[in-house]
Amino acid sequence: MKVEVVVIGGGPAGLAAACKAWEQGAKSVLILERDKELGGILNQCIHNGFGLHYFKEELTGPEYAGRFIDLLGQTGVQVKLDTMVLAIEEGRKVHCVNPKDGYMIIEAGAIVLAMGCRERTRGAISIPGERPAGIFTAGTAQRYVNMEGYMVGKRVVILGSGDIGLIMARRMTLEGAKVLACVELMPYSGGLNRNIVQCLQDYNIPLYLSHTVTDIKGHDRVEQVVVSKVDENRRPIPGTEMTFDCDTLLLSVGLLPENELTRAAGITLDPRTRGAVVYENMETSMPGVFACGNVVHVHDLVDYVTGESQKAGTAAAHFVQHGETPDGRVLELKNGDRVTYTVPQKLRLAGMDRSVGIFFRVSNIYENVEIQVTDGKTVLCRFNREHVAPGEMETITLPRVLAEKAEGDTLTVQIVDKA
Asked: How many angstroms separate the CA atoms of 172 and 142, rounded?
């Protein structure tokens, strides 16, 4: 079976990439989705706040997904649901399997990786204590409550202040549970400010910064959770313990790009993002294989996922029609002071339009700062920000004419205090 563009993943990233690839002239586009329906994680995100940037209106997650599923229906894009992709081989051969077609090997002209991300679990953060029932990742609890119709608990403690944890604090409260506390290891929240206000402050749910769970008690079901304050090295401080009588612990302790396929294919990964290293058009180190959305780096807004994925879909269609980007000068993009990573990581001047968008996150909360892009000797461009925080992704636009002026082959994005 031969297909011009194969998109792996039918969530917001895959839907946007597939629609754009078709719009840009790809004659055959196929989405492979392991779930039984399109939409990905959006299907369980029944709260609003989606689409403000892209559609200029406030939508719920299922509504946002539905818009793109409707757009997909107006194209000739093919979809295979309940289909598990097993491997990507050289020559862009995709091995996959489903109950209807059995084992398939699909030869693709271009591939778009849009597998999304997964949650870190209790095992990843090594919480001590017993191992009773009642411990869930926040996303799992969200699916149980919003899609399966199960109530996961009545007295809840939430570890981590990522957006999913904050949203579940509100959701559990609305369903009649008592959320006793939201506990955050860092001295700042990892979520959007609007979620801190709307999900915690509006419901008088306390947020304990610089705290973590140091013990879980209970045999069959969680009975108590012990929370301790931590020092500047994130180590628990003896004597600061608080004990909460509860039956449920939700973990919102970070998301990781779902990159087992990417790694097995030999595609270069970035240890900072744990996603693929990508060029300005979202192409990975394997020619003709592109990546977009949360499989590249974890986004805070689905609108940004959509824009990035449309770029990948456009590039995939272009690759099929015109082949590889011509050789030429390549600039490496690095993170400097107060910046934790950048996406893309590499810029090919031959592949750049008039400008390129650069996504990055900062390492702490900073006020009244200047974002600089420098070649080590000269500051090529500056952007002022009144407030930046780790929980909110930053984006800047780098004009090609400025990138061309760079001395050397490295550009650095850094944060400095305003003079």
From this structure: 9
